[in-house]
Design goal:
By secondary structure, this protein is mainly α. The chain contains 13 helices and no strands.
Amino acid sequence: MENRISTGSLFTLAIIAVALVLKFASAVFVPFIFSLFIYYSVLPLVDWIGTKFKLPNSVSTIISITIVVVVITLLVMGTMMSLKGFISGADIYKQKFLIFGQTVVDFLTAKGVPLDRNQILGYISKFPILDFIKKMGGSLTHIVGDSLLVGIFLLFLLIGTKQGEEDGVLKKISKGISKYTTNKIFISILTAGLSFGLMSVVRLDLALMFAILTFMLNFIPNVGSLFAVLITVPVALLQFGISWQVLLLLPGLLIIQFLVGNVLEPKLMGDDLGLHPITILLALILWGMIWGISGMFLAVPMTASLKIICDEFEYTRHISKLMGGNI
């Protein structure tokens, strides 16, 4: 009994120590984990290029890295250009926000709701829209800075890869994680692409930036998909008001999220990587406490990968079953 208590206490202390190390060294660990999942997603591309065109591993690796760098660069440039255009029109949006507030206040007043019109409009006029936009721009700049470190890690991971060096359990784990990350990225790209198409049809401002955020938020289950739709609401209302564009955009985005997330994703993922909702919730809370928003993005991929690893070893298989809800 005493041995079990001692073992449990040491295990708890070890978890706390690891969590503290991960938190204080997040500047290194977060970009590394991002690069690790991108690496497992790029591996199928490297193998396909090498097999299709009969190229050496080094050449197919260079081509794959070039494709990834070009895609990421184009996305970052498009996002920064969209944000720059939004910042330049901040005064226009502030005026639209004030007009929208006046419309709402006048409507409620006409319905008999007692409101101090001047006081409310004064609060609305002082709303720090420009400061919020600048903070958003600073966050994106920080992401760009992290992407450079992610690119460096990814480069060394791909260069250090040798064909046929993994055998047995390690190869199964690698294939499982690669399959999960590849499918998840494909699903996120599909969701973001369909959302971008719909936003382009109604000519929503910042459509490209919202599409990129949709791609990123899709890695946070349930909450992320809902938030990806909600973040478009303020801009849509300010740009169009209550109009057919808003009535088409919001239900359309919800339908896209539902069909891709609840119909297509389960078919691609299968049941092998199924995580219980409680496991997902605990993972979001835990990694959110350690790494903030970045931890929430990485929570489910890391937990799914951990489940794959636990499932490959006899003495940890019960942990994998527990994570899947098999108590």
